[in-house]
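Why does this matter for the project? Reviewers at the last site visit asked to see concrete outputs rather than summary tables. In response, this paragraph embeds two records directly. Each consists of the residue sequence and, immediately after it, the corresponding structure tokens. Nothing has been edited or filtered.
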Amino acid sequence: MVPPDAVEIMPDGLSMEAAAAFRTNYLTALYALGERGSLKAGEQLLVLGAAGGTGIAAIQVGKLLGARVVAAASTEEKRNFAASFGADAVVDYTKPDWRDALKDVTGGHGPDVIFDPVGGEVSLQAFRSIAWNGRHVVVGFAAGSIPALPFNLPLLKGGLLIGVDAAQIARREPEAQARVMTQLSVWLNDGRLTPVVGKVFAFEDFRAAFTTMQTRAALGKMVVRIGS
């Protein structure tokens, strides 16, 4: 059963598919970047897994907060997809020298904030590239493995490792959730934010949807439509 305070009126003009792609991804992105990561206008934001549902949301939210956004993704298709939704630069984190590319596109500065739904070795390498006083915000482990961060890295970088569990925000920080949802609604209503919908699957094709998710082949937030 869904608690009453978790139900909100769907904004006018928003399709059912866009509404399904909206709440969790964009709540996670703005809470992670605004409330926890303290992302400021003019700072540099690195988004890992940038073509996924939360990644694309983080790109859009980062731009709305005034950041310069670097999108990291594993294929050219995904990097192009991220760029089409506002990323200022892209890097391929599957390449051995990707940290050099990241250094180049950030002008030697490194990212001030890292939005990380990926995990695995790429997370460790990203933290090694973080700017002084940078904030690495962890929102998930799409790579399937949880990295172990050597404690000397936060010391040497003056960096913060920050965890975000969207499922706990409403219970533990209802005031923060209210602020985030209010801001997202403003952006939606004035046309500055349009939720990105990936491929829409019919309910009977849920196996194909699950396979797409497992293989990390999705672009944007996948949606499974129940009914016609």
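We now turn to the second protein, recorded in exactly the same manner.
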Amino acid sequence: MRIVIAEDNALLREGMVLLLTTNGHEVVATCAAGPEVLPALRTHRPDAAVLDVRLPPTFRDEGLRAAVQARSELPELPILVLSQYVEQAYAAELLAQGARGIGYLLKDRVGRVEQFLEALERIADGGTALDPEVVTEIVSRKAAARPLRSLTPREHEVLEMMAQGLANAAIAERLVVTERAVSKHIRGVFDKLGLPPEGGSVHRRVLAVLAYLDAAATTSPAR
């Protein structure tokens, strides 16, 4: 996999380069500041990008802005966003353009090699990979969201794990239930959120996650 990395911390940036190359990937460019990101993505057209949310010169949201712009220009580009803290409004803003191939992890996950690589591979395959702590933050704000009020506690759990990017088998293992039971709960989520059946199960999973994040974003305080 050909990857572009944007991270201002030199130690973390070089550590990711070493980690990725050791695991058979090619890092085609690295960026240390926001203005470098889009030119690198346009030039190299990578298979995936790993972007820090906060980059120089202002250390606010340069990486997120670059990710949003990159997705508008290169809509199929898988992007894994890294953040020091849970900033769920950023996740919602990025995912508003479409959840396929999008990941949002806390930087602590980079040190957990298997989780980081799994998330990167998942988004490269068109899936989503949301950090459990980001999802927990979203869950804490969901009470005011009308479309989600009708979900049962178990359906909330299943939707939370869908938002993390977990497949049915992984959800079943976490909840210690059968895949058939998970499928039933997912159908309940789709029906209660009013998601159209004609889009296919993968498309409806994305729509469900977007509804989840959108509801959270509307109840979050202004930045």
